[in-house]
Amino acid sequence: MKLFGMLITCLMLIAMPVICSADYVAPYGYTLANGRATIISCDSSYTGELAITNMLGGCPVTAIAPLAFYGLSGLTKVVIPDSVVDIQFDSFNQCWMTDVVIGKNVANIGYRAFNQCYNLKNINIPNSTTNISYKAFRYCFSVPRAVIGSSVVTIGSNAFDYCSGLQKVYFTGNTPAPGASLFGDSSSATVYYMPDTIGWTNTYAGRPAVLWNPHANADSKFGVSTNGFGFTIAGTSNLEIVVQVCTNLGSPNWSDVKTNTLTSGSAYFSDSSWTNRPSRFYRFSAP
């Protein structure tokens, strides 16, 4: 009976809910609710790179609250952990970082979340994201290209307004519903969409839309030649295609070999270094 009683006690302890502590963890201010943590502030004197913690008070960080990092001019890079699902409005507004890594489980990017991040050099929206709110990346005029994940359903008005440096926007999924003046009136960006996605026409939100469809032709030029291993890359005319290589698909470390322009829909690629490795694998990437 004593053993039985001990077993019941252990089971009860295991079944108890996790209690989140409220200890302060520099440089964050945070709240706890329902076993989840929300970052509400960051020390304004923080400088350099910041890999945001994925746990606070014993709980996973699932949200970045409004204004949490507002105006932190000393940030150079921000890594948002995979635990975060919600980046709320104005959370990184007027931050000066050049690089941001958005965690792979973020579902929502709120109103003006990255507005006026003037130095930002990249926008890569993960496949988990379904909504990009209005003015989310407004005035990010140093970004040359953006990649929009496959699950994005809606993009709010003016989301990329005044992004004067934005030249290429790659959509990996079906056509999201665009808000008004998505790219603004003076944008020079070109939109690219992937094969086997739906809803696309030759324009999107007032910008030209082009099918991104590079592939290697299995023709007479495919294989070993005098100058190395080569093949013809075919696809939509004037696409810029980066050929990347690695030597191990089990643990790939891809590196750029050459950027090719598909003039009139094709370009020939040759790799003179292929004999220097026991194996060589190729793939196509956007520049």
Write structural notes for this entry.
- Strands 1, 2, 4, 5, 7, 9, 11, 13 and 15 form a 9-stranded mixed sheet that branches. A 6-stranded mixed sheet has the order 10-12-14-16-18-17, with no helix packed on it. Strands 19, 20, 21 and 24 form a 4-stranded antiparallel sheet that branches.
- The protein contains 1 helix and 25 strands.
- It has one helix spanning 2-15, and strands at residues 28-33, 36-42, 48-51, 55-56, 59-64, 75-79, 86-87, 99-101, 108-109, 123-124, 131-132, 145-148, 154-155, 168-171, 177-178, 190-193, 203-204, 207-211, 215-217, 223-225, 228-234, 240-246, 255-261, 266-271, 281-285.
- Helix content is 5%, strand content 36%.
- The protein starts with a helix and ends with a strand.
- With 287 residues, it is mainly beta.
- A hairpin with an 8-residue loop joins strand 22 and strand 23.
Give the helix/strand layout.
Blueprint: H1 2-15, E1 28-33, E2 36-42, E3 48-51, E4 55-56, E5 59-64, E6 75-79, E7 86-87, E8 99-101, E9 108-109, E10 123-124, E11 131-132, E12 145-148, E13 154-155, E14 168-171, E15 177-178, E16 190-193, E17 203-204, E18 207-211, E19 215-217, E20 223-225, E21 228-234, E22 240-246, E23 255-261, E24 266-271, E25 281-285
Parallel strand pairs: 2-5, 3-6, 5-7, 6-8, 7-9, 9-11, 10-12, 11-13, 12-14, 13-15, 14-16, 16-18
Antiparallel strand pairs: 1-2, 4-5, 17-18, 19-21, 20-21, 21-24, 22-23, 22-25
In short:
The protein has one helix at 2-15, and strands at 28-33, 36-42, 48-51, 55-56, 59-64, 75-79, 86-87, 99-101, 108-109, 123-124, 131-132, 145-148, 154-155, 168-171, 177-178, 190-193, 203-204, 207-211, 215-217, 223-225, 228-234, 240-246, 255-261, 266-271, 281-285.
